[in-house]
């Protein structure tokens, strides 16, 4: 039985305050987790409140429904109590940041009571034998860095890696190779919010550079490394004009579909996230129809980890994979339900970090527990390596 829920403000990787939760149980179980935070957030995400307000609201409304009332190991009851305490669809009362921190901390306390690793408590006992392939952000811009590429993320995808550790090291090597290639070209640059290089180059140049980096590292390590994108196209889309705005051009929806389809062919892209606006299921369906048999078309802002939005996408044939961010929907239960619905309909799940992160590594366990084929959690940087190194440890313990 949960005996205490403690909430505090801690720092995230951007230096902003975020919510951390501790959950304590009668039998001595303990779990601690923290909420991440997005910058290119989807219009339909659950609501993140300012950390101090989210904490105050959760203390008033949620904590009394948990302490002495619910077992930490009963995740659906914990998350049901959070939903009941909030009473809205989007967690706008207690904040999705408080909700997700408590939900994940309860899961960890539940695992602690059992003395089991978190992935196993989350259902991982019956998992398959494959580990998720990490997608590593190596070049980026958009909302994550000023004066860099229009496309938000260029992602190294070591699809041929023999182990999760090999994949993690391959992504770091691609990240380093990109730095070398930039130096050769005389381009100096810093990093964006997720640790990817943020050079002031145009997207065409970035494609050439990343293509060269993944090919070079692939040759070195001896297995296939492809790459993919998070276009984060909702951030580029001008609703009124009905066009996608790039630094030097604009395109109509048809032109955007054509552009992405051409990129998929030219660079053999293995993954394309949010290539179109978050309200345009029709355009997503058209692109999926064209390229869905050769690449993953993933909905992030489109689906926001929400089963209702995913059901609409399934109905309409929009995308063939879904990004899973627990804080987009508010609880682990909701994230699980989205993964389950996706799997039932042949959609691949990609468990993901946010641009604002903490050292919390829950998503590594979530990806392993649910047999997600991919996890997107950066390539370098402490808040990213927290998850990547946890994946290596889980694989080491399990094999
Ligand atoms: P965000 O970006 O965390 O800033 O929303 C990540 C993504 O778009 O996938
Ligand atoms: Zn995204």
Automatic annotation (TrEMBL):
Binds a second Mg(2+) ion via substrate during catalysis. Mg(2+) binds at residues 230, 273, 300. Pathway: Carbohydrate degradation; glycolysis; pyruvate from D-glyceraldehyde 3-phosphate: step 4/5. Residues 128-398 form the Enolase C-terminal TIM barrel domain. Signal peptide: none annotated. GO terms for biological process: glycolytic process. SMART domains: Enolase_C (SM01192), Enolase_N (SM01193). InterPro entries: Enolase (IPR000941), Enolase-like_C_sf (IPR036849), Enolase-like_N (IPR029017), Enolase_C (IPR020810), Enolase_CS (IPR020809), Enolase_N (IPR020811). It catalyses: (2R)-2-phosphoglycerate = phosphoenolpyruvate + H2O. It comes from the Archaea. (2R)-2-phosphoglycerate binds at residues 152, 325, 354-355, 376. It is found in: Cytoplasm; Secreted; Cell surface. Keywords: Cytoplasm, Glycolysis, Lyase, Magnesium, Metal-binding, Secreted. The active site is at 194 (proton donor), 325 (proton acceptor). SUPFAM superfamilies: Enolase C-terminal domain-like (SSF51604), Enolase N-terminal domain-like (SSF54826). Residues 2-122 form the Enolase N-terminal domain. GO terms for cellular component: cell surface; extracellular region; phosphopyruvate hydratase complex. Its EC number is 4.2.1.11. Gene3D superfamilies: Enolase-like C-terminal domain (3.20.20.120), Enolase-like, N-terminal domain (3.30.390.10). Substrate binds at residues 144, 153, 273, 300, 352-355, 376. Its cofactor is Mg(2+). Pfam families: Enolase_C, Enolase_N. Catalyzes the reversible conversion of 2-phosphoglycerate (2-PG) into phosphoenolpyruvate (PEP). It is essential for the degradation of carbohydrates via glycolysis. PANTHER family: ENOLASE. Belongs to the enolase family. This is Enolase. It comes from Halostagnicola kamekurae. The lineage of its organism: Archaea, Methanobacteriati, Methanobacteriota, Stenosarchaea group, Halobacteria.
């Amino acid at each position: 039985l949960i005996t205490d829920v403690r909430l505090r403000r801690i720092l995230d990787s951007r230096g902003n305050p975020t919510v951390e939760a501790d959950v304590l149980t009668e039998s001595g179980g303990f779990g601690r987790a923290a909420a991440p935070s997005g910058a290119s957030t989807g219009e339909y995400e659950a609501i993140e409140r300012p950390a101090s307000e989210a904490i105050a609201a959760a203390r008033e409304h949620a904590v009394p429904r948990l302490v002495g009332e619910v077992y930490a190991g009963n995740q659906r009851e914990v998350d049901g109590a959070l939903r009941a305490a909030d009473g809205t669809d989007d967690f706008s009362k207690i904040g999705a940041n408080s909700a997700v921190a408590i939900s994940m901390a309860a899961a960890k306390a539940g695992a602690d009571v059992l003395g089991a690793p978190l992935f196993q408590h989350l259902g991982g006992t019956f998992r398959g034998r494959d580990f998720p392939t990490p997608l590593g952000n190596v070049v980026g811009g958009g909302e994550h860095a000023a004066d860099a590429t229009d496309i938000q993320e260029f992602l190294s995808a070591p699809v041929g890696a023999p182990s999760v550790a090999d994949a993690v090291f391959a992504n770091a090597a691609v990240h380093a190779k990109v730095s070398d290639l930039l130096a050769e070209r005389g381009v100096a640059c810093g990093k964006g919010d997720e640790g990817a290089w943020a050079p002031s180059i145009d997207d065409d140049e970035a494609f050439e550079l990343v293509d060269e980096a993944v090919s070079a590292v692939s040759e070195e390590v001896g297995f296939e490394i492809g790459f993919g994108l998070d276009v984060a196209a909702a951030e580029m889309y001008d609703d009124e004009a009905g066009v996608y705005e790039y630094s030097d051009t604009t395109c109509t929806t048809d032109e955007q579909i054509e552009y992405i389809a051409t990129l998929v062919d030219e660079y053999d892209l293995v993954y394309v996230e949010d290539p179109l606006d978050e309200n345009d299921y029709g355009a997503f369906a058209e692109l999926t129809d064209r390229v869905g048999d050769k690449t993953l078309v993933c909905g992030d802002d489109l689906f926001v980890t929400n089963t209702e939005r995913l059901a609409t996408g399934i109905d309409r044939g929009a995308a063939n994979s879904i990004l899973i961010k627990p804080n987009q929907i508010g609880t682990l239960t909701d994230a699980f339900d989205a993964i389950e619905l996706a799997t039932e309909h042949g959609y691949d799940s990609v468990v993901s970090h946010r641009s604002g992160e903490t050292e919390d590594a829950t998503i590594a366990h979530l990806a392993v527990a649910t047999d997600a084929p991919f996890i997107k959690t950066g390539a370098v940087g402490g808040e990213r390596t927290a998850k990547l190194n946890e994946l290596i440890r889980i694989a080491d313990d399990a094999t």
